[in-house]
Amino acid sequence: MKDTLSAAILVAGVLTLLLSNAPAFGQAENPCADDLAKYCDYVEPGGGRLVRCYEQNKNSMSAGCIAWAEAAKANAASLQAACADIINDRCDFEKGDPLEMLDCLQSNYVDLPPKCLKKLNEFKSLYPQPVQQ
């Protein structure tokens, strides 16, 4: 149960960060920016609200936004799966803060198993700004 909850928190949280263009993942251009402004402008990010708004409105959003957001969810899920042992042993899920989760992986960087390290580096290459410490 904890693993399922952990995966859901990480995936939803990372998607929230990506959709909101948080500084830790600042892209030059977010393909969802216009759609989110149109459909989710009233939503305050946090607590999964932005993700819920995206999910409720994704059928009306642009194909580019949907493809990007779904790829981000898949990338976050892949990262969580590859790093589940480290995340469960060393990272605090109580707060549900995905930035803290990524910071936790970064702070354990030298101890990460090769599979986790590879996925973390792939994830960071997709969203090029480094995780802030």
Short summary:
The chain is mainly α and 133 residues long.
Tags for this entry?
133 residues, mainly alpha, 7 helices
Can you put this structure into words, describing what you see?
The protein has 133 residues and is mainly alpha-helical. The chain has one domain. It has 7 helices and no strands. It is elongated, with a radius of gyration of 14 Å. The model is unreliable at 1-7 and 22-28 (pLDDT under 50).
List the helices and strands and how they pair.
Blueprint: H1 2-20, H2 33-39, H3 49-57, H4 63-82, H5 84-90, H6 98-107, H7 114-126
Oligomer: single chain
Amino-to-carboxy terminus distance: 29 Å
Give the structural class.
mainly alpha
Q: Determine the fraction of residues in helical runs and give it as a percent range.
A: 55-70%
